[in-house]
């Protein structure tokens, strides 16, 4: 399917998928969709739908890019025709220059062969001395004109060659611009395809939105209870409050209330998000015991470590787990790999610290 058909299909899907009262949605590139705690306090939904707004922006950008491509392709055709015309004109001048040069050289060779006999030849061929001088003057005029014609042709040829080089450079610039615009157009099509799918799924399936909200709240409450229950069997003495950063990555979302990256409403973010490439090793923040390792709702594939004193850490959205329940781990030991499982918009680690099951700011512990 060519790019035009791809875009028309995307645009049609987008138009059909947007209800009049669509809820706001947004999709940042690297933030996670983390499970909120039971204390979450969603705010009123704004009128603007972020997902739809992004789709509008993509559509506008696509149209502008397509128009720019059309203009650039027309300019390229004009430049190519100019190059063809200049090349033909240059060939014509080169032929004319060669003919003129050959005629001049022929006359010069004739005079050279005459050598010292030139004056005698002119004298014998002339009626008198004045006629001889007149013939000599005429020959000088011919050679002078030859030189002027050759110089003019040379100047014209150089000017044409400079113009040809300028048009050639212009053609190359236009070709590069077309390449860049084509790449941009393909990138927009890719983004629009993903965005159209998101708009369709989240705007045409409001029941899925409500179900996800309930699931997120349920996961958070159950997780708190599970951590409290499992932590009671662990050592009473807590591990040191200074923890190591579990993965090398950029902090893309902090602890606390934020605008939810998918649902577009204000919700409690119960941990921090650290962006990293898929497969990046995740290490234990402190010594502890694995009390959970597996799939847990919106967290996706995650691991939970108990560190004593009802202190626990959670590592969510992982692509792979390297530990099992009951395993003892040391600070800095690899326990998982970065992924994007569960409710996640991109590869990253969602890291939580919970005391007696209640989320607390991980930044207070990381050093």
Question: What descriptors fit this protein?
Answer:
Glucose Permease (Domain IIA); 16% strand; elongated; Helix Hairpins; 367 residues; 2 domains; alpha+beta
Report on the architecture of this protein.
The chain is α+β, with helices and mostly antiparallel strands and 367 residues long. It folds into two domains: 177 residues, Helix Hairpins; 151 residues, Glucose Permease (Domain IIA), CATH 2.70.70. The protein is 51% helix and 16% strand. The chain contains five helices and 13 strands. The strands form three sheets. Strands 1, 4, 6, 7, 8, 10, 12 and 13 form an eight-stranded antiparallel beta sheet that branches. Strands 5-11-9 form a three-stranded antiparallel beta sheet, with no helix packed on it. A two-stranded antiparallel sheet has the order 2-3. A hairpin with a 4-residue loop joins β7 and β8. The longest helix has 75 residues. The chain is elongated, with a radius of gyration of 40 Å. The protein starts with a helix and ends in a 7-residue tail after the last strand. 29% of the residues are buried. About 10% of the residues have low confidence.
């Amino acid at each position: 399917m060519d790019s035009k058909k791809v875009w028309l299909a995307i645009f049609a899907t987008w138009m059909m998928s947007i209800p009049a009262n669509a809820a706001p949605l947004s999709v940042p590139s690297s933030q996670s969709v983390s499970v909120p705690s039971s204390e979450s306090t969603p705010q009123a939904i704004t009128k603007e739908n972020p997902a739809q707004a992004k789709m509008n922006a993509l559509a506008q950008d696509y149209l502008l890019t397509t128009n720019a491509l059309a203009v650039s392709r027309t300019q390229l055709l004009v430049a190519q025709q100019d190059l063809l015309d200049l090349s033909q004109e240059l060939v014509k001048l080169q032929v004319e220059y060669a003919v003129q040069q050959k005629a001049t050289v022929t006359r010069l060779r004739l005079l050279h062969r005459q050598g010292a006999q030139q004056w005698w030849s002119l004298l014998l061929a002339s009626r008198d001395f004045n006629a001889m001088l007149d013939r000599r003057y005429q020959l000088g005029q011919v050679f002078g004109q030859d030189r002027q014609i050759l110089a003019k042709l040379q100047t014209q040829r150089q000017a044409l060659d400079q113009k040809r080089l300028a048009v050639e450079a212009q053609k190359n610039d236009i070709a590069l611009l077309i390449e860049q615009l084509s790449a941009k157009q393909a990138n927009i099509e890719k983004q629009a395809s993903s965005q159209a799918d998101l708009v369709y799924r989240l705007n045409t399936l409001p029941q899925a939105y409500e179900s996800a909200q309930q699931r997120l709240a349920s996961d958070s409450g159950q997780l708190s209870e599970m951590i409290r229950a499992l932590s009671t069997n662990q050592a009473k003495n807590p591990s040191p409050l200074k923890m190591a950063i579990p993965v090398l990555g950029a902090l893309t979302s902090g602890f606390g209330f934020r605008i939810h990256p998918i649902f577009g409403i204000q919700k409690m973010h119960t941990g921090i998000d650290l962006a990293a490439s898929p497969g990046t090793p995740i290490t234990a923040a402190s010594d502890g015991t694995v009390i959970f390792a597996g799939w847990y709702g919106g967290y996706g594939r995650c691991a939970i470590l108990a560190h004593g004193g009802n202190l626990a850490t959670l590592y969510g959205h992982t692509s792979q787990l390297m530990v099992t329940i009951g395993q003892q781990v040391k600070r800095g030991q690899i326990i998982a790999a970065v992924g994007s499982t569960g409710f996640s918009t991109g590869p990253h680690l969602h890291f939580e610290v919970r005391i007696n099951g209640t989320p607390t700011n991980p930044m207070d512990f990381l050093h």
